[in-house]
Design brief:
Blueprint: H1 11-27, H2 33-63, H3 76-108, E1 112-113, H4 121-135, E2 141-144, E3 158-166, E4 175-180, E5 188-190, E6 199-202, H5 203-210, E7 218-230, H6 244-255, E8 260-266, H7 271-281, E9 288-291, H8 331-337, E10 340-344, H9 350-361, E11 365-372, H10 380-390, E12 394-399, H11 407-419, E13 423-425, E14 432-433, E15 436-444, E16 447-455, E17 467-474, H12 477-491, E18 503-505, H13 509-525, E19 531-536, H14 542-553, E20 557-562, E21 579-584, E22 589-590, E23 593-597, E24 604-608, H15 614-618, E25 620-626, H16 630-645, E26 651-654, E27 660-662, H17 674-682
Parallel strand pairs: 1-6, 8-9, 11-12, 12-13, 14-25, 17-22, 19-20, 20-21
Antiparallel strand pairs: 2-4, 3-4, 3-7, 5-6, 7-8, 10-17, 11-15, 15-16, 16-17, 18-25, 19-23, 21-26, 23-24, 24-25, 26-27
Helix pairs in contact: 1-2, 1-3, 2-3, 9-10, 13-14, 16-17
Amino acid sequence: MSRAPSHFFNRELSWLEFNQRVMGEALDKTNPILERLKFFCIANSNLDEFFEVRIAGIKQQVEGGVTKRSLDGRTPLEIYKTATLRIHQMVEDLFTCWQDNLQPELEKKGFHFHKIASISNQNKQWLDKYFIKKVQPVLTPLAVDPSKTFPLILNKSLNVIAKVQSKNTNESAARLCIVQVPRIIPRLVQLPHGNSNHEYVFLADVISHYIGKLFPGNQIVDSWRFRVTRNSELYVDEEDANNILKAVENELRNRRKGDAVRLEVDLDTPEDLVSELLEKLELAQEDLYRINGPVNPVHLSGLFEGDHSPELRNDHFIPKPSPTFLSSKTIFETIKAQDVLLHHPYESFEHVVTLLEEAAEDPKVLAIKQTLYRTGKDPRIVNALIRAAQNGKQVAVVMELKARFDEASNIRWARELEEAGIHVSYGILGYKVHCKLCMIVREEDDGLNRYLHLATGNYNPATAKLYTDFGLMTCQPDFGEDVARVFNLLTGFCEFEKTDKLIVAPFDFQTRILELIHRETEHAKRNNPARIIAKMNALVDKPVIEALYAASQAGVKIDLIVRGICCLRPGVPEFSSNITVRSIVDRFLEHSRIYSFANGGNSEVFIGSGDWMHRNFHKRIEVAFPIEDASLKKRVLDEVLPTHLNDNVKAHLLQPDGSYIQLSPVKDEGFIQSQSQFIGSRQGNKDPQPPENQNIA
């Protein structure tokens, strides 16, 4: 049965509630101040991407006259208006947080942000030289000539706009000039003289102060900062692109020039100037955001980079080796003897790097096949693949060029891999390759064996320290056969062969999830054990949500852990009274996907790369796979999921009206912070035990 629009939450508004929870971490005074600043920067960065992709897409629909209603019954214009109102409030709250909370607290801890007029003469003399030697040579003033095209303002670039008046003529009208704040120079200029090592002025303020030096013979009436956000979606027609790598590379150049979707200006920017900017950028008044603080505060992230001020941060955490690999066996002997489940970042991602590095050198290894989605700057995995090719092994890489905002990095790695003689494929026309797979073929006494790594997260050692993810290492032949079929699909022209163990999108991911939910529904109707626990980043797909509603009505207890967007409305007596939804926002980004089904007492657990969204089901190559080893399944069911469900510190419970309530311990209940529990268990403390009412096996 098809549900009423009122049974669903709006996708965009749900995402904005997620960003509100991120901002909540910036306001949480129990967090160290530099951690609070980090969340403030993340919330602002999240908004940038939201404008570049989601708002840009909605505006295109509005301009194109699209009136198709969303899951919750809104037209694109209604979504745009509602989201814009919510964002304006969020931006106001963010900079109130900066002005009233973060900046004063940072000042107390010795981080000072100076106006140039107030700095000492000693620092002023230093700044004079700094501007002349380091800044002025890279600046390019752009005149705004009414008779010419308005200068192109690059996406997310910070700019200073000045009113300039000639000293030598009778002209009374001021002219406008724009100076882009260079990205190559740190946005926080550290002053050498002061009471602490953290005395700063903003680079944009430096340029504003000295901007007269760029216009000899003129006087500066005043200057202000502004920033433009543009549509950053890539529009690559793969069917017409003979060379997909070149096509993506060309489209990347256009990203910086897409249609404007947002204008940010200093709070005190004059109305006439704002109106002119809006007109030139073809934006409306609702696209304007006046900023009561630093325009583009993401660059405050420089304050928490480096290893200074440990007392102002969370306790330093170093991922621990998995106990499974502490024996004297080689990594291949260990995996052949037993499946290994790695829980990152609590257990080290170095095991994955080691697997590839040893495979590159091992004479028994004949071939390596690997998917790469977000690789990051760490070269070790790419270097291991190159080294393997140099050692005569067959190496094939499926590189996803359209991983949003990592396209340039992936193009660079793809070229290096191809130059090393590695076969680089770009997947299947029309689909993003989002699955995380590695297969190593090794010749051994008992024949050829396939060693596998299947994961929920990317092959990126940097983000593996910041994101929570799972990776399974196995040598099971039936898994190996399935993974080989997936790679053949990705690199060849074969049709999809049904897999025995793996669930593969776009072929059977949605179908299998629906079947598993329907099975729980039937178990509940027969009074058999029936329960669903699912952890993911987003829940949007309408058929899956409707199946969950039906399961709830049949009596299935459903606990969802959804970090971000959730379009399901929980806790409504008529259709979702048995469903809870919680979101955990903490020091690590919750990124793992786990799907657990009680199955009448014979529980099944799957982990995978895909969320329950239309794009993951139908527009991407995703892989989910079962955890079959009894001890590993027990670990997920008895340790991992209950710890998440019992979090009463960083968990937020979704309410039927769409709001979230942050949980806190009830009377006689201790503080349970799931990520801290996992850190403790990996550091040798007693593993957290589920309370009786949360046993889910």
